[in-house]
User: Which sequence fits this backbone?
């Protein structure tokens, strides 16, 4: 049975550590609890926000309506087909714990996605990705409560419209689906994905085992990214901009060191962190907010910062990158409400 908590403190439930209060916080331990929470909100005509670990959200000081947290955790093996296994994972499961436990069981494929904060239920929302692997590469389907039809539905990978840090859930119909569990296809034999130089530099040999890659990903991320428990942040604050090849060629003439990678045909992806660094922001601090000194793509809250401060700083960064390179940056985390 659900027990709505009124005026609930969310300060510890968002990784920026912003002071925030929810009108109602409801924890759902079962699918029935999710339905009951939706009825609770509908009867009072309240909006609903699903909250995982709060590591890709910027919460305002007051969040009206219902904040719903799914607390079901765990995973189960549903099928073993040839060299592959299918697993179902509950939405409330911690993502990184899933990665380490699957590697330990010999179910491979998630190593490059280690140490990403947050929950399994949020992973499809922005099709989480790191070091050349995205959730969509291991994804089969998910079960979600569709608020429009009031039923639990199954969505396949193609129905989820996964794209670079994007999906159906993030930009096509945000808020419509409450993801309850996901099905992944992992492999019993390890095939390393070693496209990223930052990762291969940390590895001793050319054909590493899964646990070596897992350890390298964790070590690299620990050395470069701030721990949200110590320094509030939401990871990369801006998406990497994707620009037409012609624009890239002109920029490259002006900035031969420009960091860029091939994207869809006719387009190049620029490293947003490099642009921000070159515009002089790395290590900059303004009041309680700042730009992390080891990775310019991460904005940090030194404590006591507000969403307003964050908007001011991020807009200054966007304006200066645009003035220098003619490239627009878009924030990656969702501002709510
Ligand atoms: P939240 O922030 O709670 O929610 C994010 C969005 O998903 C919200 O819109 C929310 O409403 C929605 N949502 C959450 N759960 C559900 C659900 N069950 N059903 C429907 N909607 C839901 N991201 C990457 O892609 N790659 C990285 O390498 C990476 N590194 C990071 C490193 C750091 C230090 C930090 C702080 C963040 C990083 N992130 C990264 C961003 C973030 O961790 C991921 O996007 C993660 O998946 C968010 O999970 P969460 O549970 O915290 O989601
Ligand atoms: P990095 O290795 O220093 O690389 C800088 C940028 O260059 C990254 O944004 C990455 O793009 C791109 N890149 C590097 N090598 C590439 C290659 N071989 N092919 C295509 N693109 C390449 O990046 P980092 O900041 O330390 O992060 C490492 C990984 O973790 C990245 O994949 C990054 O996306 C992920 N990460 C994400 C977040 C987040 O909040 N979203 C936070 C921290 C780290 P991509 O970003 O497209 O991979």
Assistant:
């Amino acid at each position: 049975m659900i027990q709505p908590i009124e005026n609930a403190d969310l300060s510890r439930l968002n990784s920026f550590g912003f002071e925030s209060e929810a009108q109602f916080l409801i924890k759902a331990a079962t699918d029935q609890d999710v339905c009951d929470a939706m009825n609770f909100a509908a009867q009072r005509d309240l909006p609903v926000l699903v909250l995982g670990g709060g590591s890709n959200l910027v919460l305002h000081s007051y969040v009206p309506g219902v904040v719903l947290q799914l607390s079901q955790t765990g995973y189960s093996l549903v099928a073993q087909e040839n060299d592959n296994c299918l697993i179902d994972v509950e939405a409330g499961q911690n993502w990184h714990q899933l990665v380490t436990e699957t590697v330990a069981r010999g179910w491979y494929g998630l190593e490059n996605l280690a140490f990403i904060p947050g929950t399994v239920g949020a992973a499809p929302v922005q099709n989480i990705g790191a070091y050349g692997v995205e959730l969509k590469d291991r994804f089969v389907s998910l079960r979600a409560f569709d608020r429009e039809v009031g039923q639990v539905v199954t969505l396949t990978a193609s129905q989820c419209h996964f794209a670079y840090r994007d999906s159906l859930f993030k930009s096509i119909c945000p808020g419509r689906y409450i993801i309850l569990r996901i099905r992944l296809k992992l492999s019993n034999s390890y095939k390393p994905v070693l496209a990223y130089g930052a990762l291969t530099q940390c590895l001793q040999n050319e054909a590493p085992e899964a646990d070596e890659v897992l350890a390298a990903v964790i070590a690299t991320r620990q050395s470069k990214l701030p721990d949200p428990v110590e320094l509030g942040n939401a990871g990369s604050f801006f998406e990497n901009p994707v620009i037409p090849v012609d624009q890239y060629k002109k920029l490259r003439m002006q900035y031969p060191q420009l960091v860029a990678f091939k994207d869809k045909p006719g387009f190049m992806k620029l490293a947003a962190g490099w642009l921000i660094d070159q515009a002089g922001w790395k290590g900059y601090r303004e009041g309680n907010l700042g730009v992390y000194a080891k990775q310019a793509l991460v904005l940090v809250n030194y404590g006591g910062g507000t969403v307003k401060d964050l908007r001011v700083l991020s807009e200054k960064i966007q304006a200066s990158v645009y003035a220098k390179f003619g490239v627009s940056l878009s924030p990656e985390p969702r501002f709510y409400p």
User: Anything to note?
Assistant: The mean pLDDT is 97. The helical segments are 31-43, 95-105, 168-172, 197-200, 210-224, 245-254, 272-278, 307-325. The first strand starts at residue 5 and ends at 9.
